[in-house]
Design goal:
Layout (H helix, E strand, L loop, with lengths): L4 E4 L4 E2 L2 E2 L3 E4 L4 E3 L9 E7 L2 E7 L4 E6 L5 E3 L7 E4 L6 E6 L9 E6 L5 E7 L3 E5 L6 E9 L5 E9 L5
Antiparallel strand pairs: 1-4, 2-3, 4-5, 6-7, 7-8, 8-9, 10-11, 11-14, 12-13, 12-15, 15-16
Length: about 170
């Protein structure tokens, strides 16, 4: 993105440069991207419509941020979309909560991808609180995407960990 390599993870410095959880490399040196969102470290990054997005999650919350201009990453407020995904990690099922009044209209599509990029689960929802049973999946880490079924816009991309019912 912008002829730079972007990396994210649980770090506060990289190559002696102070960078909270996300940084960029121009082929010569590291630079901070300006992510200052407290203790929520970035779990995934993606470029969509020529904008850089960063996703965070914890056991109680998942938040999407978008780069603002050349520096700084701010919380996405597009329509106020706010999703809570819990528990994470989960044993057999997880729940998604959101404020229905702030969502794009129409159904939402939830997709889970394995680490090799294969879609392993898809479901639809339009209510503000829904439980998803994926007990048939093998334990592992999955990429979770929530999209608008009307516009196709990606509303959230994050990771979720399925530990299985034996734990």
């Amino acid at each position: 993105y912008n002829n730079r390599l972007y990396v994210c993870g649980d770090f506060t410095t990289i190559g002696s440069v102070s960078a909270n959880y996300i940084a960029s490399w121009d082929g010569i040196s590291w630079s901070s991207v300006g992510f200052n969102q407290g203790s929520a470290f970035v779990n995934c990054i993606e470029v969509y419509n020529n904008q850089l997005y960063a996703g965070t999650f914890s056991t109680t919350n998942a938040v999407l941020y978008r780069q603002s201009g050349n520096v700084g990453i701010n919380k996405v407020t597009k329509g106020g979309n706010a999703f809570t995904i819990y528990p994470n990690p989960y044993k057999t099922e997880f729940q998604i909560q959101t404020s229905e009044t702030t969502l794009e209209s129409g159904n939402k599509i939830i997709e889970l991808y394995d680490l090799e990029g294969r879609k392993v689960y898809e479901d639809y929802f339009n209510q503000s609180d829904k439980t998803f049973d994926t007990s048939f999946l093998s334990p592992g880490v999955y990429c979770l995407k929530i999209k608008s079924s009307d516009s196709g816009n990606i509303l959230l991309t994050t990771r979720i960990s399925h530990i299985g019912s034996g734990y």
